[in-house]
Amino acid sequence: MATNWAVAAAASLALAMSAALQAQQAPSIRPAEGQTFTEVGRYRLQSNPWVNLHQRLLYEARFESAAPASLSDGELAAWKKAAEAYRVMLGKRNPIVDEQLIALNATLSEAHSAELPADVPEAAAAALRLAMPLYRVAQWQEDDRANRFWIAVAQPMLASAAEELAAAHTKAYGMPFPTHILVDVASHGWEFGAYTTGEGESAHAVISSLAPGTQGFAALEILLHEPSHAIVAPSAGAIGADLARAARELQRKPKYNLWHAILFYTSGELTRRALAARGVHYEPIILQMYDRGFGGFRQPLETHWQAYLDGKVSREEAVRQILIETTPPSQ
Ligand SMILES: [Zn+2]
Questions:
Q1: Distance 37 CA to ligand 1 centre (A)
Q2: Does residue 209 share a domain with residue 240?
Q3: If you measure from the C-alpha of residue 262 to the centroid of ligand 1, how many angstroms do you get, rounded to a whole number?
Q4: Span from the CA of 265 to the centroid of ligand 1 (angstroms)
Q5: What is the pLDDT of residues 162-219, one digit of tens each?
Q6: Which residues of 217-234 are buried (b: 16+ CB within 10 A; e: fewer)?
Q7: Last residue of one domain, picked from the residues 208, 226, 244
């Protein structure tokens, strides 16, 4: 995901809330408290305190203060010390692509006790140990409640539509959709509220339960969009390889974010269809992005990629036409 979220659909949320209430009564669904996973087919969702604290500190280290509001002056000073240690540990790195940070998030995701795993690097471990008692008292209950609610809203949507949507993505990309999808639901999910690491059949997503753009029915689109990053890439894998081939043949350089716009369009349109088949009117997230970042992509995508998803043209032809209409020929 790569946008600022602004629009929350109140009507959608109300419906999803009633789904969540029903979900709590169903015997097959366990609350995702502490180490408990909520499993739905290929998806495993959790609300994990170590991942939540890690993501909160990462966010504060790079973007803006994410200190719990109820800390006393002395506690806030200790929290700031931990956040400063994270700033130093993080440096200029990006947790989406940095191998060590990807491994750290994965290790924390597997931590299911009050003890940190031994293989957490000391710089991060010291900060996490310092901040965790403060986080537990001042913020964790609130974060965990929001995360578990988000999971409870998502669960029945996944149970109804995930396999159908995974098959539709596999068909659209000509490549198998990931089969093992771990979702850490957290208060913060780096810059844009969600990101994914992993490759091929395994994906590890972090999704914010608080970002308005991930809530309500959009949660279903996000739960398809994020794992797609394990198979879609800028110049390889699904979409990327098609774009690279067309770029060579046409001597045109794709815009840097065209591959991501195609990913957005695909998950948005396929989710829209799945929800329409269930009586829901849904507006894909990309509709909010054509005037911020995806300018110039709307007409080509709605013409050619839509035609491809409708089975009217080949993927190769759609990608060629989109590339032609979104870039000038190179000289
Ligand atoms: Zn994305």
A1: 24
A2: no
A3: 10
A4: 11
A5: 999 999 999 999 999 999 999 999 999 999 999 999 999 999 999 999 999 999 999 9
A6: bbbbbbbbbbbbbbbbbe
A7: 226
CA distances for 69 relative to 73, 132, 134, angstroms = 11, 15, 11
State the number of CA atoms in the 13 A half-sphere of 67 facing the CB: 17
At 67, list the tokens.
């200190």
pTM of the model: 0.89
Distance 35 CA to ligand 1 centre (A): 27
Single-letter amino acid, residue 328: P
Distance 157 CA to ligand 1 centre (A): 20
Rounded Cα gap, residues 82 and 56, in angstroms: 11
Q: How far is the CA of 2 from the centre of ligand 1 (A)?
A: 6
Whether residues 184 and 242 share a domain: the answer is no
177 and 213 inside one domain = yes
* 100 in the same domain as 194: yes
Same structural domain, 246 and 211: no
Domain that holds residue 247: 233-326
Which of the residues in the chain have pLDDT under 70?
1-35, 331
Angle at 292 between CA 286 and CA 295, to 5 degrees: 80
* 106 CA to centre of ligand 1 in angstroms: 19
Same domain, 285 and 307: yes
